[in-house]
Amino acid sequence: MDLQAVVDEIVAKMSPRLGEGKVADYIPELARVDPKQFGIAITTVDGQTYMAGDATVPFSIQSISKVFMLTLALGKMGESAWKRVGREPSGSSFNSIVQLEHEHGIPRNPFINAGAIVVTDMVLAGHKPREAIGEFLRFMRYLTDDDTVIIDAKVAKSEHLTGYRNFALANFMRGFGNLEHAVELVLGVYFHQCALAMNCVQLSRAGLYLANRGTNPLTGFSVVSPKRARRINALMLTCGHYDGSGDFAYHVGLPGKSGVGGGIMAIAPGKASIAVWSPGLNKVGNSALGSEALEMLTTRTGWSVFGH
Amino acid sequence: MDLQAVVDEIVAKMSPRLGEGKVADYIPELARVDPKQFGIAITTVDGQTYMAGDATVPFSIQSISKVFMLTLALGKMGESAWKRVGREPSGSSFNSIVQLEHEHGIPRNPFINAGAIVVTDMVLAGHKPREAIGEFLRFMRYLTDDDTVIIDAKVAKSEHLTGYRNFALANFMRGFGNLEHAVELVLGVYFHQCALAMNCVQLSRAGLYLANRGTNPLTGFSVVSPKRARRINALMLTCGHYDGSGDFAYHVGLPGKSGVGGGIMAIAPGKASIAVWSPGLNKVGNSALGSEALEMLTTRTGWSVFGH
Amino acid sequence: MDLQAVVDEIVAKMSPRLGEGKVADYIPELARVDPKQFGIAITTVDGQTYMAGDATVPFSIQSISKVFMLTLALGKMGESAWKRVGREPSGSSFNSIVQLEHEHGIPRNPFINAGAIVVTDMVLAGHKPREAIGEFLRFMRYLTDDDTVIIDAKVAKSEHLTGYRNFALANFMRGFGNLEHAVELVLGVYFHQCALAMNCVQLSRAGLYLANRGTNPLTGFSVVSPKRARRINALMLTCGHYDGSGDFAYHVGLPGKSGVGGGIMAIAPGKASIAVWSPGLNKVGNSALGSEALEMLTTRTGWSVFGH
Amino acid sequence: MDLQAVVDEIVAKMSPRLGEGKVADYIPELARVDPKQFGIAITTVDGQTYMAGDATVPFSIQSISKVFMLTLALGKMGESAWKRVGREPSGSSFNSIVQLEHEHGIPRNPFINAGAIVVTDMVLAGHKPREAIGEFLRFMRYLTDDDTVIIDAKVAKSEHLTGYRNFALANFMRGFGNLEHAVELVLGVYFHQCALAMNCVQLSRAGLYLANRGTNPLTGFSVVSPKRARRINALMLTCGHYDGSGDFAYHVGLPGKSGVGGGIMAIAPGKASIAVWSPGLNKVGNSALGSEALEMLTTRTGWSVFGH
């Protein structure tokens, strides 16, 4: 299959539609991004990268960072992490607090905000915030084998200043004893992890270990066991798109994780890691063109995990 | 891979544990089933069936019927079916009514009771209940290529007599205008579809079209398009085990649908359709030994859709 | 104080506004009532009745019947009735089912539909539906000392045919074991009690025992103890207007119970029983002009229980 | 009626039961209070005070302060205050956040924590926190005509350190734009108002304006209009005891407001203001002995607003 032709075709189809959807406006720094951009990159398990459109323009990965922080936390805590966060779809929006009250401060899964904050609290254990941020950044550079990946401090600050809902979630869980560190410290790390800037090429490489039984085939680095890679993929498929996870599975058929910056990382197990980016979001908060591009991709490639 | 050895090994592992879990007791007729039973059958896309344990003992498929009724309804309605039922995990138990009130009578997905009742209402369109039940039964015989499949009228009656919660759900949706037929008629069909009796061998054959791009390789019958087969698989993976769907995806990694009779049907796209059965249920209402058996199976076979 | 002048003045103020609000349309028979009507009657504890406007036009008392059925049920069950229904405001609409799921089938109070259905089930104990309806009708004639009070069978039938939500509530509670009789039987009585037709004069007399320490001063009949009268008044004040109870207490300051037929019964303890009626409802489902009329009344008379 | 005999009798009945209930332990400083205390004071509208038990021992008034802050806020904002906070019972616990999410950051009433935080934000307008605290303290001294009333800084600090849930509520509402000042500032004031220390005698005098048409009969100071006094009483009756408000109305029959410090202020309109205090709380978070004492009081005096 000519994957370069596939990504070129996707970019050609998306070009006239650039600007569709609605850029996230609750984080002022993100609201300033030019909506008329679209990029895609595929890195296959045999190490080839195919890219098209704005594939080398950096963007804020936002919630996609939750996958990588979960990987770090599972490395530290093992399966005991699941005592503090569940593994079920939430049936509500990314920043809902209702479920937390009904379930005594245990978030439904690590990919909604509340769950990711608990995961960050796990990674923070034994560290100062600055060190935890450093660990995360090193991990991302290790995954991408690229030291140019950086955290956008402006975005982190912008999120901090307007992150009332996250402060609410964190304080709420702290009240239930499900946060070991002070809210300010945990969110300090959290806002920085969300503010990581990557482009599609880098992001597609970062996720490659999940497509390749836990090992990055580009570097040979073993990141997680094959079993854990499968399990993280399972979590992404059931919970990776908030209350649009079912829809994404239905249309795209790949494990994936979206961010409000407009990025989506998707994993075709045994085949490739894919990154798409376009800032305009659909109604459930996932990149509008990005979601459609991935549906086109799986239609063309037959990569859906649910059959070809 | 020697699949017969795999199923034999699974039965050997499960034998000392027969009787674990809790048999569903809210349907009196089901409560009378001997809990110390376990069966498994795998039918591959090349037409071989491997079985072990109580694989030829018939049991009540209960909610597994929701997959087949959805297949029928999509055949009648096409994608317009999704105006009346969603495609997202519910984040609550199989018979919850809370979500229905919050979302104006539109059930979250076709695999919780409320959603399945709407689906039954779709299949009923233009028919008398007796005809719709007949259509369903014929469809199941067509899928299995086996005319001995029957509906257990005693079970249907038992469910009817104690099905207050389903009457509540149906009346609630009827109040919102999301049920076109009288509650009694729709539930009359619904209780009969749930009461279908099959054994593991039959069930594994019935699901084979979902593993084989919509076509039953045993008979050559085309049931749905490849795309629709993928999509039904996606729905099973995200929503097939109620509020244990995330957990099932995490541990087993296959699309699947469980029933309170203790059966589970799982699909390995491109490879096989699997049926397990053991009456004792775990905390979220899925067969306890059946769930574990499927985890053993995917560990041994590498069939998880999330990588091997 | 010249109460006749007060009611005349109220009618004069309301006359130009007849037709405001929205007539309940979910019960077809009620939707046919002429909205441009307004009546008021005050019966004082010394036995005088003051009336104005359409005070002798019969209307469907609907949920106001819940007060009288509760009186009957407490007579049968005593305080043990509170094991099956709570005494707290619900914080939700009259026909909400969410709370029932969260609180295991125990309705929050006897004045929301679910609670009233449980109360009807209590009154039904040991009776056939026809007998229970007869008991209720005799009780209402006894309270009003007026044998012309009747049940409007057409309205009862109309409610029965469209009462899906009540069937949902009743089945739901029956599933939790909080209904002792078959749903059809309980709702058969329930729809009849709601369909009682009275005019303002009759209704003001029916409530007089609640204003007069449990005894009807017109007939000398003792209905309940002074303590029970106080307690029923307390329940009406906190729960009598669904999710508008706080607002009614704030503006009117009297225990009261409204019905979707547009009637409101209000009690000024130690002083009088008041009935107002006007079919148009406000946003929370209480008579729009009726609520305002009562606010005018307490402003003019100083009868608010919260001070004058 | 010999009110001194009434309070003496109540203290005699309560003496053998001192220590019942459970002292609030989530605020460490409050957890240290000796549970075996009970005090009661009645101040009548003609200026007499009757006291018994530990009526002169100061305690933390906690949520009772919400009544006085509401009085201040209404003075500043008038009825426009109700755009930012509702007037309906919440149907949930004092610190629930569920309702806030469902109703877009508008708390149900000013007597749950979320509502009181909004009220504090109103009082803070145009002030520094220190000034707002000063204004509140002066107001309380004015109401009691007693300059010895103080704020317990230790308690305020203790609440601040453990007040995660209140930080969650405040951040949540700030995210919805329903808090004009920074969370830290608003809660700084809030924790201080809750930490006001008063004894029963002082508290009974502070509430006297609500029993006397808005005017303190001891000092002649006009605090609010008669209408506003009635309305605040109505709010206390429907919402003053969180999810035990219905029960309190049922058993006691007076407008009242409780605090987790074990105090309850109750108003008998036209007659008296009553304060009781005993640290042990019942299941819904109101003083166990205090609630019962008030029921005894209204039984003996016939002061229930629902009839005698």
From TrEMBL, chains A, B, C, D:
Reactions catalysed, as given in the entry: L-glutamine + H2O = L-glutamate + NH4(+)
Positions bound to substrate: S63, N113, E159, N166, Y190, Y242, V260
One of the protein's GO biological processes: glutamate biosynthetic process
Gene3D superfamilies: DD-peptidase/beta-lactamase superfamily
Pfam family of the protein (one): Glutaminase
EC top class named in words: hydrolase
Annotated EC: 3.5.1.2
Keyword Acetylation applies: yes
Record-level Gene Ontology MF annotations: glutaminase activity
Zinc-finger among keywords: no
Keywords from the named record: Acetylation, Hydrolase
HAMAP family, per database record: Glutaminase
PANTHER family, A to Z: GLUTAMINASE (PTHR12544:SF29)
Oligomeric form and interacting partners: Homotetramer.
Family indicated by similarity: Belongs to the glutaminase family.
Protein name: Glutaminase
Organism for this UniProt entry: Allorhizobium terrae
Taxonomic classification: Bacteria, Pseudomonadati, Pseudomonadota, Alphaproteobacteria, Hyphomicrobiales
Gene name per UniProt: glsA
